[in-house]
Amino acid sequence: MEYTHVLRGTAFTSRSLKEVAVLKDHLFCIDEQGMIAKVLRPEEAHLVDADIPITTLPEGQFLLPGFIDLHVHAPQWAQSGTALDLPLYDWLNTYTFPLEAKFSDVDFAEKVYTHLVDTLLANGTTTVLYFASIHKEASYKLAEICAKRGQRGLVGKVVMDDAQENPDFYRDASTAEALQDTEEFIVAVKELAKSVKQGVYPVVTPRFIPSCTDEALQGLGELAKKYDTHVQSHCSESDWAHGFVKDRFQKNDASALHDFGLLRDKSVMAHSNFLEDADADLFAETGTAIAHCPISNAYFANSVLPVAHLHEKNMEIGLGTDVSGGFSPSLYDNIRQAVMASRMLEDGVNPDLAPHVRGRQDSRITVNEAFYLATAGGGESLSLPIGRLEEGYCFDAQVIDTTSLPIFDATEPLEDIFQKILYLTRPEHIQQVFVQGECVHKK
Ligand code: GUN
Ligand code: FE
């Protein structure tokens, strides 16, 4: 049991889907690789060797696992908070594709991506699954910025090769080039990763089925298998996107993605609002996870993901901001929206008990479950040892200063303080952020 430093304080971490462990005044022993080698209770403090430095959190500060954002469109950060007046198809063509096309300029990309990575870290987000743009160089720049700033980044060069469905000003020049650029990107990021403590990962990224030819989807499935990479895409997001795939293949997104070899243990599909039970079974069998994006869903899906129902079906689910379909870079905001939206499914009449239709009394989720989505659920979705403050996990954590939150009673239960943290934390309360044992953000 080798470790080099110890952080002592009170922590909250998911024990299970519904249960949060309160680890009062525990000692987190961190090794040279930034892993949690040991978690000691206060009465075991004497077990720490005298020469190991111990940092003790001041009163009113608490430790949470770093958040894991399973869905961010990095170039869209430049339009966050705007352009939310159109439905998905029009939004893509009017605002988003013209913006993403600008990322052929690597200097512009560097400016936007640096600001985004720093903002996400300041919001307590330590691991991010990113869509970049179709440009290989700018996508690689994003991986480099994550590496440099200390964030664990999983980055995809976006593939959009279908000449009919994508505008001429923003698409891959050909299917062959899309696949070749993806392969070169994978190789380059894997090389970069060799010198990055917290890890950076290449991700196979067909934007969504409507933007890709069959040949590209097939080729991407093969690349994911050849290099054993993560895969990300959008799945059954809105009525339009879901219907488009049904018209093209006479089947749902999930089956079509599966046919192309794109549902794997390390696959994460954004939204997935309109999964039918057979689709959910396919996800569960293949280990494919859902990136739940509750703020974005209010704008583009006009729908609510039936989280409780999908958890009953043993689905892996994490949380995503979907910047900029979701206006906020904060997973705190998305935790809140996940809870609020789930309650809206409850009332009403639904004789068929269809999962994403109102009228299922068992739909609401608690803040504990939403916290699970932002932490342990994200880690499981990515098949990485992250999202929990437990032995064998990476030390990815955020220190929350509650001294300016409305806490007036010294005997207030820690469970209530935890809820106040989830509902009321803003970046100004996030004192420090650690990734793989290293401090990467300090207020
Ligand atoms: N479907 C295809 N592309 C996108 C995108 O950029 N954002 C969202 N929300 N859905 C998409
Ligand atoms: Fe998205």
UniProtKB/TrEMBL annotation:
Domain Amidohydrolase-related: 62-439
EC number: 3.5.4.3
Record-annotated membrane-spanning stretches: none
Source domain of life: Bacteria
Pathways involved: Purine metabolism; guanine degradation; xanthine from guanine: step 1/1
Note on how the cofactor is bound: Binds 1 zinc ion per subunit.
One Pfam family per UniProt: Amidohydro_1
Requisite cofactors: Zn(2+)
GO MF terms, alphabetically ordered: guanine deaminase activity
Reactions this protein catalyses: guanine + H2O + H(+) = xanthine + NH4(+)
Keyword annotations from UniProtKB, A to Z: Hydrolase, Metal-binding, Zinc
Task of the protein: Catalyzes the hydrolytic deamination of guanine, producing xanthine and ammonia.
NCBIfam families: guan_deamin
Family from the record: Belongs to the metallo-dependent hydrolases superfamily. ATZ/TRZ family.
Protein name as annotated: Guanine deaminase
